[in-house]
Amino acid sequence: MTHFKSNTRAQNAPLYEADMTTGFKNRETRSLPLNKIIYNDCVEAMNALPAGSVDLIFADPPYNLQLKGELHRPDNSRVDAVDNSWDQFSSFSAYDKFTNEWLKAARRILKTDGAIWVIGSYHNIFRVGTALQNQGYWILNDVVWRKSNPMPNFRGKRFTNAHETLIWASKSEGAKYTFNYEALKALNEGVQMRSDWVLPICTGHERLKDSKGEKAHPTQKPQSLLHRVLVGTTKPGDVILDPFFGTGTTGAVAKMLGRNFIGIEREAVYREFAQKRIDEIRKFDRASLEVSVSKRNEPRVPFGQLVECGMLRVGEELLSMNGRYKAKVRADGTLIGRDVRGSIHQVGAAMEGAPSCNGWTYWCFQRKGKVIPIDILRQQVRSEANKKTN
Ligand SMILES: C[S@@+](CC[C@H](N)C(=O)[O-])C[C@H]1O[C@@H](n2cnc3c(N)ncnc32)[C@H](O)[C@@H]1O
Question: Which own/partner pairs from 332-336 qualify as long-range (CB within 8 Å, at least 24 positions apart)?
Fold first, then answer.
């Protein structure tokens, strides 16, 4: 493994390295350096890419920590803090200038319905948030990543710094950004995903080490964080760009999840670690990459379609889920029961004396002595339709 040493791009080194395809490419993305690490300054590299070509940007920019002097633990061992030259700026205004430059370049390459995530700490995230809003991005959420195993505050003079903040923003107000609500809910065991995420920092086998056994990068992010971001806000085949690639966490997770990535990293040593790491990743098979979709996004199936295609017979009797009421299917896809007629929802509501009713889960049909909800038939119609379009 490469020994850690800071080193920027050699004059004649190629800008694009590596060629790993996720297998998802379309006409718009063919001209992009997909699944490659660009070895350059991120502003220069983004300015060389076509406008409106990227679905999502995940950015973990320098924090501008401004550390003064070395930090030691109570046993006098040195704390491995972020004191690298790439994290140093002469003043807040120099940092703001840099932030505005890269955010401007990032916004140009985002598709109209694209979005951005920026992660940071109290040192920089407020400045980044201001710049995002000033440039016309539209903040959708801020997410607190609460570290389940944070580093203690060794001096005992402040609270343990146990979280980082992620800002999620669309390119502009009203953009139709991707949000896989159902997939996130499924990830969270059926409960709506909240904006506070408790995840461990990157340790153990996941943490890349150099030949001396030391951390290859001071701020390698955990894969779990990127997993949640990418499952929640991208689709398979999307293009995800990370302008501060570091050890390539974004690329590694994107490859696993069947997304395309573009990484940009200025330091040769990190790029090498990232490249090796990504080469070793195996992506999941296509079926495992499919995520739960919102019912609202599923094709609409009118009840009448079940009658038209003979899944239910005209005149067939449906039974309410609680077994108390019956209604007959009419040729036009309405129901008639007692003295009410109307849609499956209207008749269900009238029978129950309720203001509304979901007829799909209320009504059942009978086959071979079994009582089966009509929603099963709707699912069959949908899966047939999916087979035809795939
Ligand atoms: C906070 S780290 C990102 C770590 C990464 N998320 C990971 O999981 O490994 C920021 C990275 O951006 C790189 N960097 C800083 N300024 C840059 C610039 N102007 N262009 C490209 N890369 C830059 C640094 O070398 C560093 O690796």
Answer: 332/304, 333/302, 333/303, 333/304, 333/305, 333/306, 333/307, 333/308, 335/359, 335/363
Is the CB of 99 inside a 6 Å radius of any atom of ligand 1? no
> Which of 292, 324, 316 lies closest to 377 in space, CA to CA?
316
Among 111, 148, 84, CA closest to 26: 111
Q: Cβ of 260: how many Cβ atoms within 10 Å?
A: 28
272 lines ligand 1 (CB under 6 A): no
Using one digit for the tens of pLDDT, what is the confidence trace for 98-128? 999 999 999 999 999 999 999 999 999 999 9
What rounded mean pLDDT belongs to the chain? 87
Q: Which residue's entry shows tokens 């008639």?
A: 336
Cα separation, 141 vs 181, whole angstroms? 14
Supply the pTM of this predicted model. Answer: 0.74
- pLDDT given for residue 255 in this prediction: 95
CB 266 within 8 A of CB 41: yes
Query: Whose alpha carbon is nearest atom 16 of ligand 1?
Result: 86
